[in-house]
Amino acid sequence: MLGRKITFFCMATGYPRPEITWFKDGIELLYHKFFQVHEWPIGNDTMKSKMEIDPTTQKDAGYYECQANNKYAIDWRGFRTDYVMVTY
């Protein structure tokens, strides 16, 4: 919903433990005051990442990816967000 917080999670397992990078529409997400990325390791081989956008706007609609990589492999998962404004 527009104006609310949206949260995405990504978890990756590998050895060595993968790093996770977030992208929107193919562009790496770097620092911005309206989104935050939190990461925490789980055991020796898993990384969990949470990306939050707060508040969401129409500009946040798009294709998001989380990319996990280590020196042996790269893997990613993608998803699309769409917003529709209802007027009366």
UniProtKB/TrEMBL annotation:
Ig-like domain ranges (all copies): 1-70
CDD domains cross-referenced by the UniProt entry: Ig
Domain of life of the organism encoding this protein: Eukaryota
Pfam families in UniProt: Ig_3
SUPFAM superfamilies per UniProt: Immunoglobulin
PANTHER family the UniProt entry points to: IMMUNOGLOBULIN, MYOPALLADIN ISOFORM X1
Name assigned to this protein: Ig-like domain-containing protein
